[in-house]
Amino acid sequence: MKAESIVDIAKRRGFFWQSSGIYGGLAGFYDYAHLGTSMKRRWENIWRNYFLGLDDNFHEIQPCLIMHEKVFSASGHLESFIDPVVRCMKCLHVERADHLLEDNLSGNFEGLSVDRMTEMIRKHNIRCPRCGGELEDVGVINMMFPVDIGTGNPLRAYLSPETAQGAYVNFKQEFEALRRKLPLGLAIIGRAFRNEISPRNVLIRMREFTQAELQIFFDPETINEHPRFSEVSDYKLVLFPAKGRKSGKVTEMKCREVVGKYGLPEFYVYYMARVQQFYLDVLGFSRKVFRFRELTEEEKAFYNKYHWDVELHLESLGGFREVAGVHYRTDHDLKGHQRVSGINMTVNINGREFIPHVLELSFGVDRNIYALFELCYREEKERTLFRFPGRVSPFDAGVFPLVNRDGLPEKSREVYSFLKKSGFDVFYDSGGSIGRRYRRIDEIGVAAGITIDYQTLQDSTVTLRDRDSMKQIRVGIAELPTVLRRFLDGERIENLGRVIN
Ligand code: GAP
After folding, report:
1. Which residue is closest in CA terms to ligand 1's atom 8?
2. For the chain, which terminal residue's Cβ has fewer other Cβ atoms within 10 angstroms, N or C?
3. What is the pLDDT of residues 428-466, one digit of tens each?
4. Is residue 266 lining ligand 1, measured as CB closer than 6 Å?
């Protein structure tokens, strides 16, 4: 599937489109429409339930997105959150240098020094993509959006480029409020802002986007163990290590072997396993489209000691693309905040004083939504559909009267209200033939269709239709909430009742 087709479908059906569209749009900004908003909220809820469920001491917080300049001086973003850029001498167009190299030569040039990038531009005689003019030497620019607070003598602040800093500046207070226990996890689902030079690939590289990040604060002396490691020690991770990357091959290895072979601590590997299980078991992606990519010293973010990204294979973008990362940030951030704020960031556990270390699980929500669009799209002879996992699709089910007379609409409204009260996201549709209504829910990826017909009036049963197989079963209205829940959780329709078509 092509990226343009995704954009087209998303726009036509009401998932997302470019922001400020009535004024010609704003590059790198997208608005979620009604279906996209519902889907994104549901993805976030799944993420929340899964990751907060990993430990009793993991909690969600909602810090501000505009933060004091000193936050970013402490974190290193003021100095190091930079992108390599190159300017055209003739038309003054500015382009991201590593992307320009990527567009002209095959490969990945992220992390290359600016001198080396200049050298390559000269060697391959790469010119301005707009006017063909000669390019200046590669330089760097900071990617944060500054904000001036107040008037007169305004205070300089920044829109946060990652949600993570909100957790670090709140750590000490949360640690006290939560009765001084480690590990402590602080999760944030919120916006991040980056002044990307060349926003591109729809939801993949935006200037305002949503992150779901979990910062796990832990005692560095316990990094070589995790109390639940035995649950994953035989679980195989799909790895794309830095060494041997040229071969393009992935390696599958049990968690306990990964610890020995790559020198990664158990604490880190345990969370890699949980992240992979989120993609494969909870979201239902195939192993073939998933891998952990190890970043080299040059590619790693400036704050990371261990850094493996989650990549999904996205044909529309030409191959594997990063959607999340597992980052061991050491005490980089808390130490920085202690230095700049003067606030003591050490904790005292069993008489030992230390600054906790941080393991960060970082997800780009929009990139994950884009991946769902691409990986779940199917074209069949008579229909197109999105095979979204039941709990991520924009609604749990559509409720339909077979015809608009003889008391069926009234009965359907009853079933609709009953499901709403039982906690389901359902919608009611009575427009057009039942076949057309099924096509409509297929097109927006809703997994279940519930139809109220003449038999319903006699025996209080309805049909439940599976989007993927188009099979239908008959279910009693009283049992519907339980059956629908199991169906949305991935149980096959055949296991839930006798197939009638
Ligand atoms: N707190 C760590 C951090 O922000 P990152 O690798 O810069 O790390 C984490 O970003 C995730 O955020 C990425 O894996 C990606 O999914 C998403 N992301 C980063 N930049 C993005 C952008 N410009 N547009 C959309 N998503 C982005």
Report:
1. 362
2. C
3. 999 999 999 999 999 999 999 999 999 999 999 999 999
4. no
